[in-house]
Write a structure and sequence with these properties.
The chain is mainly α. It has a single domain, classed as Up-down Bundle (Amino acid/polyamine transporter I). 79% of the residues lie in helices and 0% in strands. α16 packs antiparallel against α18. Bound molecules: 4-fluoro-L-phenylalanine. The site of 4-fluoro-L-phenylalanine (PFF) has 15 residues, from α1, α2, α10 and α14.
Length: 452
């Protein structure tokens, strides 16, 4: 059990704030045309993300086991359909897939700590920053090295049990990360690209919105809030009974969104001031930020601190990616925590090699369409498994559990709020996600029929 509800907020925020905010949000915003995408993303967080996070926490706190066993126990207790267990199994699988590539990208951040410390970026030009990133990606050995370092660190922390380290990490690093984002923002304001960057993020060009980009915005909302795979459910299981679920969930969602928007506002001015491409993809953060630090007084120092903080943010998220599987295996087989942690780590590490190769030797090998191995794992886990898991979690909270149980977890008795909750979680949120999940399929069919 967390020692206070405050620690639950810290742990869940540690899970939520990670590469998804600082690396992924800016780059997919860049690839999907900016403003309209940001608005879609904010809509998804508010309308779908917050209610589903509440559902995850309340299910976890009601069951008090690992996600798989929590759902099992609640099914038995309330005689609901055994089909709901799929929530736990799919979540565990999604956790493995996401962690496999998450560790690779976090490894990039570790590599950049060393590069900035070396002074490699002092006075660098945009061309230099681009080339530095490309030559790093072309070298699978260096990527595997840093992926391994990150994975070993994660497994080490997870194996020792998380609460203590996690608490210190988040209490200190999160505010520092925000401060450094503000420093970068200050740099952006004076870089000459701020107006354009701001405009890019907040003016709406609806013509760039497609069914696919709505799906990506929804997937991002799930990914950034760590929803749909049981991570927050696993943390909810350790939450004290007297803490308010609504308040804590809203706090976490707001914090997570603030970090993402701040990262975007820091990165896009640098993009425009240096004539870079906003749609350049996964390299966006790794090209723009070192470039900015290279031009700042004391930039190398700030840069080292920044990438260290990003790595910590990534580690507190990675920990939560392992928690559903870990808690389950320890519970079910009475296995030693460190043994399970090492096994999970090894599986994800091996899968991660596929991601490393997707950027060099396999960069022209496509699994489906234009998706490389990494692209495929990322797409399936983020855009399909997490939203689908979210729908099931919402429906389970709405129809798999008695109203009285949910009401007492949320502190809602009969009345308009209880009704509102039921409508949102039992209808609006799942239907919205399902429409978004199905729409791109219609797009493909229409295109196939020559009508799109
Ligand atoms: N929310 C994390 C991020 O934004 O980087 C990623 C993540 C962590 C996704 C845990 C899912 C999860 F269960």
């Amino acid at each position: 059990m967390w020692s206070s509800s405050w620690i639950f907020v810290l742990a869940a925020a540690g899970s939520a704030v990670g590469l998804g905010n600082i690396w992924k949000f800016p780059y997919i915003t860049g690839e999907n045309g900016g403003g309209a995408f940001v608005l879609l993303y904010l809509g998804c967080v508010t309308l779908v993300g917050i209610p589903i996070m509440m559902a995850e926490v309340l299910i976890g706190r009601e069951g008090r086991y690992s996600p798989i066993n929590t759902v099992r126990a609640l099914i038995q207790q309330h005689k609901s359909s055994s089909m709901w267990v799929i929530i736990g199994w799919m979540g565990m699988l999604a956790g493995f897939l996401i962690l496999s590539y998450y560790a690779v990208i976090a490894g990039w951040a570790l590599h950049y700590i060393v590069q900035l410390a070396n002074g490699s970026f002092d006075g660098a030009t945009a061309e230099f920053a681009n080339d530095a990133f490309d030559s790093f990606l072309a070298d699978p050995w260096r990527m595997v090295f840093w992926q391994t370092v990150f994975m070993v660190a994660t497994i080490f922390i997870v194996a020792r049990g998380v609460t203590k380290g996690l608490e210190t990490a988040i209490r200190w690093f999160m505010p520092m990360l925000l401060i450094l984002l503000v420093v970068l923002l200050g740099y952006g304001v004076t870089s000459g690209g701020f107006e354009q960057g701001f405009d890019f993020m907040f003016s709406f060009h609806w013509e760039s919105v497609t069914a696919e980009s709505v799906l990506i915005a929804m997937g991002q909302a799930f990914f950034t809030l760590s929803l749909g795979m049981g991570a927050i459910m696993a943390y909810g299981a350790y939450m004290p009974s007297n803490a308010s679920i609504t308040k804590t969930v809203v706090t976490i969602a707001v914090l997570d969104t603030v970090v993402a928007i701040a990262a975007g506002l820091a990165i896009f001015p640098i993009v425009f001031a240096n004539g870079l491409e906003p749609s350049q993809g996964p390299g966006l953060m790794f090209v723009t930020i070192p470039l900015a630090f290279g031009q700042m007084p004391l930039g190398a120092l700030f840069g080292v601190v920044f990438f260290t903080l990003v790595s910590f943010a990534a580690i507190t998220s990675a920990i939560s990616l392992t928690e559903p599987a870990l808690a389950y295996l320890v519970e079910e087989y009475n296995a030693k925590r460190w043994r399970v942690a090492v096994s999970v780590g090894v599986i994800c590490w091996v899968l991660g090699i596929g991601t490393v190769l997707s950027f060099n030797l396999w960069s022209e090998t496509y699994v489906v369409g234009e998706l490389t191995f990494c692209g495929f794992i990322d797409y399936v886990s983020q855009n399909i498994m997490l939203p689908l898991g979210g729908v099931l979690i919402a429906l389970f909270a709405a129809y798999g559990l008695p109203n009285t149980v949910v009401g007492s977890q949320l502190g809602l008795r009969e009345g308009p709020f209880a009704l509102l909750w039921k409508v949102v979680i039992g209808f609006i949120a799942p239907v919205a996600v399902l429409i978004v999940l199905i729409a791109p399929i219609f797009d493909v069919v229409l295109e196939f029929l020559g009508l799109g």
